[in-house]
Amino acid sequence: MAEGRRFLAVLLLAAASMTSAQAADDAVLDARARALARELRCLVCRNETLAESSAALAQDLRAELRRLLAEGRSDAEVRAFFSERYGEVVHYRPPLQRSTAALWFGPALLLAAGLLVLGLTLRRRQRLPAEAFEPEADDAEEASR
Length: 145
Fold this sequence. Notes:
The chain is an all-alpha fold.
């Protein structure tokens, strides 16, 4: 009888340790899934990540993402799967490629062009004589009326 109790206790401890190991694995899997969901764009609400979106499609994509991770695929393989299936638009931060170079460097180039135009305009104004900034006689008469 005592051996039966010991066997039952050992069996219960083994089941509990397996459950805690599975829970730990699930926690790691959930953390990876959440991290990847923050990197992928919701295809319905394009200004939100999969993690933020409450759209039905986003819920389906999160389930698909978790399934792929549970199968043992790496993060890079999951990103590649989503890219192949939905295109590069699925990346919330698109990778630097020839086709996305304008997204990465466009704002800096526009800022540099604006600063260049501003500098040239200010330099041109410095070269003008002081009389160029005085109101014309006709303008002064109209203002006094």
